[in-house]
Amino acid sequence: MQGRPDQDHKKQEFRHVRKDEQKKQFSLPLRVILLITAVVLVLFSLYRLWERPPKNTQPPLPEATPVPTQIPQVAESEVTPAPEPTMTPLPEGTAPENARQNGIYTILLAGLDEASESTDTLLLCRLDTIAHSINCVSIPRDTLINVDWDVRRINTVYSGGKRGGGSGSENLLLQMRFLTGIDVDAYAVVSLDAFIDVIDLLGGVWFYVPIQMDYEQYYDDLFIHLEPGYQHLDGYQCMGLCRFRSDYANGDLGRIEMQHTFFKAAAEQFLTLGNLPNAAKVFSRIADGMDTNLTAANIAWFVRQAMQCSSENIHFYTMPGYGKMIQGRSYYVISPYYWLEMLNARLNPYETPLGYWNLNIVFEGENGEFTSTTEVQGPWYYDE
Asked: Do 154 and 145 touch, CB atoms closer than 8 A?
């Protein structure tokens, strides 16, 4: 039995109305998605226009100094054996041209202890924006430098410059040039408070603490109490983890190894798109808590470059050397042969290899006497 014509007409109208409603229901989420996508693309385009790489305005390398007639060596018993360097040394008395490799930037990161104004954490990094890789080399806090001072550690340079009425950062950059032969493109001296706040802004770090860590230092308001195991650490706990060094068999080197493991874990967790909403707060806090030659746009550019590096292409190393007591103080003495090899393999931003003539370092020779790639400053210090 067929329905009446007016009923069939009403049914057809109902179907059309329902289809229109369904189209509207499906089109609304699509429009929202397209709108959000458009907004994101506009913001990203504005972000790309705003961010800027730093300009390489550093002065050129110092002029060449005479090369020792004998390549400085260190007794094999005092260092870990390393493979022969693969680079070809330049002739004596010549210096590399100050020509930079494309897409290579050098960045010095220093962690500042506000109480003593000492830079107890020093990382010199080489960022390759073409290969998307980062090499970071730790300079131990007690590294012996070639100066005529009473305390000849690299971690006293920043505070010495400020207390002498000058610039702590300029003093530090000069000594880094002496140690490495490299003019650093960008530097950032970060306070402990800024480090803590940035970790908290990014949501903390999941990390495996390998040992029980208990240490208290009342005059510095430092209280470290961490249980072993995989756990979520806030900013203050991360700071304590990176500063703790009392129970390591190899002292400060153990602390550096722990820092490398932590930095690797933090990079894997932080360098993700999920942290982009926190970027503005992080940039603002970093700028408030550090001495740097970078603008906010420079920092943003570096962060985006770092986000393109996979964790497999982020590497950490430690300056080769060994501990020694001099004038009743603990020092870390550079092993020059292995240090030069590491500089050229991991850090050198120039098109030609670095040589001993680019360095101004003091080291211990085969016979136990201290010598230098230039001239030993205050040689009386080493006569015990």
From this structure: yes
* DSSP assignment letter at 289: T
How many whole angstroms separate alpha carbon 163 and alpha carbon 161? Answer: 6
pLDDT (0 to 100) of residue 79: 37
Residues 127-180: tens digit of each pLDDT:
999 999 999 999 999 999 999 989 999 999 998 888 877 788 999 999 999 999
Residues with Cβ within 8 Å of 191's Cβ and at least 6 positions away in sequence, in order, are 112, 114, 289, 290
pLDDT of the residue at 19: 56
Contact 241, 226 (CB under 8 A): yes
Per-residue model confidence (pLDDT) at position 104: 94
Measure the CA–CA gap between 266 and 270, rounded to whole angstroms.
Answer: 6
pLDDT of residue 213: 93
235-243 and 252-270 helices, crossing angle to 10°? 150
Q: How far is the C-alpha of 97 from the C-alpha of 354, rounded, in Å?
A: 10
| DSSP β-bridge partners for residue 322 | 333
Residue 351 tokens, joined: 């098109």
Label residues 142-174 b or e (16+ Cβ within 10 Å = b): bbbbbbeeeebbbbbbbbbbeeeeeebbebbbe
**Phi/psi at 220 (5° precision):** -110, 5
Nearest Cα neighbor of 224 from 203, 246, 244, 199 is: 244
Taking Cα atoms as reference points, which of 374, 379, 357, 188 lies closest to residue 289? 188
- Report pTM: 0.75
Q: Is the dihedral of CA 65, 70, 75, 81 positive or negative?
A: positive
CA 249 to chain centre: 25
Q: How far apart are CA 336 and CA 89, in angstroms?
A: 14
C-alpha 126/C-alpha 133 separation (Å) is 8
State which residues of the chain have pLDDT below 70: 1-98, 219, 272-280, 283, 287, 289, 384
How many Å apart are CA 381 and CA 150, to the nearest integer?
Answer: 8
Read off the tokens for 87.
Answer: 């680079």
CA angle 343/141/106 to nearest 5° reads: 35
